[in-house]
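Narrative of accomplishments. A recurring question from our advisory board has been how the design workflow behaves on a single, concrete structure rather than in aggregate. To address it, we present the structure tokens for one chain from the evaluation set, followed by the sequence designed for it. No filtering or post-editing was applied between the two.
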């Protein structure tokens, strides 16, 4: 099982930037795919972005495409989410998730980090 710890959330004005980090332990980092999800108050958790174990392939939700960038540093066992041009609608608790590359479901989750974007 993988332990995931997020950091980097906070309060930012609309148009600003934040970088979230997710550090993993408990499994070989290069064996796992990773993703970011978010959950706004009163809404269901939604997919934000994912990255393959090599880091070569990424995928984004339409709502963040062109503004957010997902990346990972296998040497540091850390995944990042660079968030630019933030909007109030981006306000949510952001969670990182991981799974073994050959499994369909996201099996491990972090505790979440709050991102609040003020207008």
């Amino acid at each position: 099982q993988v332990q995931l710890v997020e950091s980097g959330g906070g309060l930012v004005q609309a148009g600003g930037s934040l970088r979230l980090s997710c550090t993993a332990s408990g499994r070989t980092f290069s064996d796992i795919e990773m993703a970011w999800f978010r959950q706004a108050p009163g809404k269901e958790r939604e997919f934000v972005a994912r990255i393959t174990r090599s880091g070569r392939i990424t995928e984004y939700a339409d709502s963040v495409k062109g503004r957010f960038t997902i990346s990972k540093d296998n040497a540091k066992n850390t995944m990042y989410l660079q968030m630019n041009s933030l909007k109030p609608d981006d306000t949510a608790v952001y969670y990182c998730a991981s799974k073994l590359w050959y499994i369909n479901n996201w099996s491990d989750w972090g505790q979440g980090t709050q991102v609040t974007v003020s207008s």
